[in-house]
Amino acid sequence: MIEHIHFYYCNDLHSHFEQWPNIVHYFNEKKKQHNQANEQSWMVDIGDHVDRFHPIAEAYNGKANVELLNDAGFDFATIGNNEGITLEHEHLYHLYDQANFQVTCGNLKPVNKAKPFWLQNSISIETKENLKIKIFGLTAPFNAFYHPLGWQVESPYDYLIREINHLKKDADILILLSHLGLSEDQLIAEKYPEIDLIIGGHTHHLLKNGEEVNNTLLTAAGKYGKYVGEVHIEWDHHLDKIVNKHAYTVETEHLSQDKNTVDKLKKISQSAQALLNKPVTFLESSLTVDWFEQTPIIESLTNKLKDWTNADIGMLNAGILLENIEEGYVTYGDIHRICPHPINPCTVKLRGIEILEVVRGAYDESLMHFELKGFGFRGKVLGKFIFSGIDIDTEIDEAGIEHVQHVTFNGQEMEHDKIYTFATADMFTFGKMFPEIARSTTKEFYLPEFMRDLLADALRS
User: Fold this and answer.
1) Strand ranges of the sheet holding 2-10, from the earlier edge strand across to the other edge
2) Which of 83, 96, 219, 272 could form a Cys-Cys staple with 210, CB 3.0–4.6 A?
3) What are the pLDDT digits (tens) for 216-263?
4) Mind listing the domains of the chain with CATH numbers?
């Protein structure tokens, strides 16, 4: 006898709800079809459903996202870094208190307290035909961010070395919900053929028809709900093994919508705006935002960053502010709209010679116009880089290109071997934008504050 089982999933929605009604309708229609055929199916979220760039996620600290998953009828979920490191400790600790679905993330635990009741190492399910399936989740170990928030994330490899035999012991089918990224999924599949299926996310990769590595099926559906994924498995009860498994992705834009979900989103959006409509301060005159100029507001924010972190020098990009700030009452909703990024302040220790390289790199026109995607940045371009605590002399050549000539600190030339505390946005500790910052071994991240919290302080003063 062949038993057919089915999984439908989304990953890395990042609170992009544009296609959410389409996803809900599609999943529920599929569930009805399988029920009519007397086949079982489950709906799964692979993490980063929450993203505080969106007013709904911001106003409700992710709980409205959980409510939407409940309404859609999801069965299982794991935790992404956007749930893990952009919510304050208590907000994550209680995020899934009202979840109607089960949550698994084996390598996450709070520091010095009991795990929340909803957090499971693994989930065991048994089908109508007594097929035993075990599902477990793993998330990316960004401990430099998790630790200040009171959480510990174990290396996924340490977890697997210790737990793989136990996980597989009483399971016919073993499934990993992975918020680790494609390269990690591929490596795990190479090392642990015991895992039959890895449903992935985190690196926003799209595997339209899945990928097989060492007999493990890998799948992922990109980002923002533009695609969703499905996995179909056939188990032969006579042979006692999987005889077929396939993964597909489906584009969501032109799917039908679930009307109840459309109405629910509209209602939640209105209530979120009302919650965010609390005044933060009053401005006598409007403040202009210009991504390629040093305006008073970005200068004030950069000064605030330097002083708030007790740094010697501060640096921010003008593109971190998205809109002008109008005169009159400024609400938290205004500040969230103007600076929506889940980006934290941070400091690094740099030698003077390294700071000079950072400053020279910041005057690169191509970097200013770079359309950054990811690392928490939710803007369009990086824009002009603004510094606090140093004076920079430049000259413009015949081609109109600006070059750094001198950099002084307290009126003196930077000392090449002196160590300075340098404050910036945490996104510059990743990637290749500023190698000197990225390779620093003395990074300190300030959590749970986002840059918009410093913007609010700057506006009040």
Assistant:
1) 119-120, 102-104, 76-77, 40-45, 2-10, 227-236, 241-251
2) 219
3) 999 999 999 999 999 999 999 999 999 999 999 999 999 999 999 999
4) 2-272 (3.60.21.10), 278-460 (3.90.780.10)
